[in-house]
Design a protein that fits this description.
The chain has 430 residues and is an alpha+beta fold. It contains 14 helices and 18 strands. The strands form 4 sheets. The chain has an 8-stranded mixed sheet with strand order 6-10-11-18-17-16-13-12, with helices on both faces. The structure holds 4-amino-1,4-dioxobutan-2-aminium adenosine-5'-monophosphate and magnesium ion (MG).
């Protein structure tokens, strides 16, 4: 049975025979020796091939092939402080499985080049570390919801109406009609709480975002939840439990990867519940005091979020936004109907919004009035309106941008590094 590199990098394996399978990460010929740094999904290790120990043909081939050639080898582990990961394998048998010549990616390639060659760049140690963190984030999210009694469910991706406003809808031809790609599964989750009470989904959402920022994708992974009988505060409590649970898991499982990415681990370790809750009104004051050009009633754009959250070192909930700047479905505050019972969760360090959520309007008259104010036709949303006719209940929900969350947790400069194949205004390849 072959080993993986990570497991052999310890003193217990010194002097033991191992079998490894992987790809050439670096290679160097020194006289009758070839030094190969082998990589697999787990780590890298230096392997030394001595000419006299293997058939001449194989040595010649090894000398010729380039980085990213795939290999299987057998050898004995030795401690070697000068080797990149502290151990070395003395090779006794080796075979080239799939040769690689002139691998297009070398040092100093531009960002555009790496994006065009993402299918090859995903092999890089940097992407490997990011993808592992992403895996743990998704895994921990599912863990959280299952433990909390949320049922996993799915909504459709082809839809006929907007959830988050018409300006970012993608239109798709559909057998002579037009439909859209969904912006959010929220309304479908709202229907499902009448059966399951607490539901969640992890699915793509689509936004025809014309803005080019560090935080916008046109297709992103959206974790959304909805719960019957929940008010705004109940939902925020679940969300902070969820965020803290996921961060804990990432710290348990992915320290090595965070270190590789030079992430400030201490900042993540210091994140504690409860998160600060700040009303929108207070946020505007805070922003103005810190030199951000913004007025009461303005929505926060990417630049404002960056400027504001640079002053945060933990996530902060912003609540009670003016109703005009959020979609029609949010429940107006009975104490002051000019503001709504909603929340955004802003990640610190300049990252900004990662969650949008809140309490939904559950009274029919209020919903119809808000739709009229926004110029929406209730017939287009007949099924959404129906929910307020047949046994309506208070309920709340939220949407977490998974790519944005990974972007922040991993401390990346741009969201496009947080997802294997980013889709942006200019990029649909590979
Ligand atoms: O704030 P948004 O638009 O809220 C909704 O879609 C609600 N219907 C969710 C709900 O309550 N069920 O989007 C939610 C989150 C944002 O906070 C952000 O993290 C992410 O989705 N998001 C994007 N991520 C990447 N690229 C984009 N273009 C995004 N737009 C939103
Ligand atoms: Mg939002």
């Amino acid at each position: 049975m072959a080993q993986q590199i990570e497991e052999i990098l310890n003193d217990e394996f010194v002097g033991k025979k191992v079998e490894l399978r992987g790809w050439i990460y670096r290679k160097r010929r020194v006289g009758k020796l070839i030094f190969i740094v082998l990589r697999d999904s787990t780590d890298i290790v230096q392997c030394v091939v001595e000419k006299r120990k293997i058939p001449e043909e194989t040595f010649k081939l090894l000398d010729k092939v380039g980085v990213e050639s795939s290999l299987v080898l057998k050898g004995t582990v030795r401690k070697e402080e000068r080797a990149p990961t502290g151990y070395e394998v003395d090779v006794e048998e080796i075979a080239v499985v799939g040769p690689s010549y002139n691998f297009p990616i070398s040092k100093d390639k531009s960002d555009e080049f790496l994006l065009d060659n993402r299918h090859l760049w995903v092999r890089s140690r940097e992407m490997n570390a990011i993808l592992k963190i992403r895996h743990t984030v998704f895994k921990a999210l599912h863990e959280f919801f299952r433990d909390r009694g949320y049922y996993e469910t799915q909504g459709p991706m082809f839809v006929t109406g907007a959830v988050e406003g018409g300006s970012t809808l993608f239109e798709v031809p559909y057998f002579g009609k037009k439909v859209y790609l969904t912006q959010s599964s929220q309304f479908y989750l709202e229907t499902l709480i009448f059966s399951l009470e607490k539901v969640y989904t992890v699915a793509p959402s689509f936004r025809a975002e014309k803005s080019r920022t560090r935080r916008h994708l046109t297709e992103y992974w959206h974790a959304e939840a909805e719960a019957a009988w929940y008010h705004n505060d109940d939902m925020m409590r679940d969300e902070e439990d969820m965020i803290v649970h996921i961060i804990q898991r990432v710290l348990e499982e992915r320290k090595k990867e965070l270190k590789y990415l030079n992430r400030d681990i201490e900042l993540l370790q210091n994140i504690e519940k409860p998160f600060e809750r700040m009303r929108y009104e207070k946020l505007i004051n805070f922003a103005q005091e810190h030199g951000v050009n913004i007025e009461y009633g303005d929505d926060l754009g990417a630049d404002e979020e960056t400027a504001i959250t640079k002053h945060f070192n933990a996530p902060v909930f912003i609540t009670h936004y003016p109703r005009e700047i959020k979609p029609f479905y949010h429940r107006p505050d009975p104490d002051n109907p000019n503001v709504i019972l909603c929340h955004d969760l802003l990640a610190p360090e300049g990252y900004g919004e990662i969650i949008g959520g809140g309490e939904r309007i559950y009274k029919l008259e209020v919903l119809l009035q808000r739709m009229e104010e926004e110029g929406l036709n209730p017939e287009d949303y007949y099924w959404y309106v129906d929910l307020r006719k047949y046994g309506s209940v208070p309920h709340a929900g939220f949407g977490l941008g998974m790519d944005r969350f990974v972007w922040w947790i991993a401390g990346l400069s741009h969201i496009k590094y947080a997802i294997p194949y980013p889709r942006t205004i200019r990029r649909t390849k590979p």
